[in-house]
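Entry 14. Ran structure prediction on the chain below.
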Amino acid sequence: MTRFALPTAIVSAFVVGGFVAVFFVFLNHNRNSGPCPGCLRPRPVFVAKVSIPKGTSGRVIGTKGLYSTKMARVSQMVKGALIDPSQFRGEITTRPIPAGARLTAAKFALRGPIYYPRGYPKSVSASQTPAEMSDYLGPPSFSSDLAVAPGVWVDGSPQEAAIDEHVATGTLVGYCRTVRAFQAHNPEIPFATKCWRT
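Output, structure tokens:
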């Protein structure tokens, strides 16, 4: 019996070692490989609850609840799906949206270009912005702000190609008289505002 004990122990050690190795290989493979696109947790997307006619404003869609939330797998997500219809409050639908269709940025646009006084919009040094307004104009890390009229700025930092959309969906920050004048020149856009009396 003792003659077979050593070979049996060696073979048993290899078999057990093999099982342990296979177990750790599968464990590491599952831990290191990313989940498959269809296996990711579903995410909410916004869809039209009813048929929405062309020309409907994003504000109406948001306030009248013309949309609902639907869960979709990441692999089924459409590029440009809206995060929140209220982001498009100054824009209108460019085509009819049937009930059940996803709300995407491509289906919205401004009614027309925004009016700016001559020389605006322009990037100005953050140091030129009045101190009481600087908290409303984005992180202190921004070295410049976007002035859209004398005494009127908009929060955030837009990309060059989308300044009108950024201004329409941002918050106008400035002196009340000049903010109201800017709004009067762009009556079709329901701007959010924060203003101070001079």
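The CA atoms of residues 120 and 153 lie 10 Å apart. Will compare against last week's run tomorrow.
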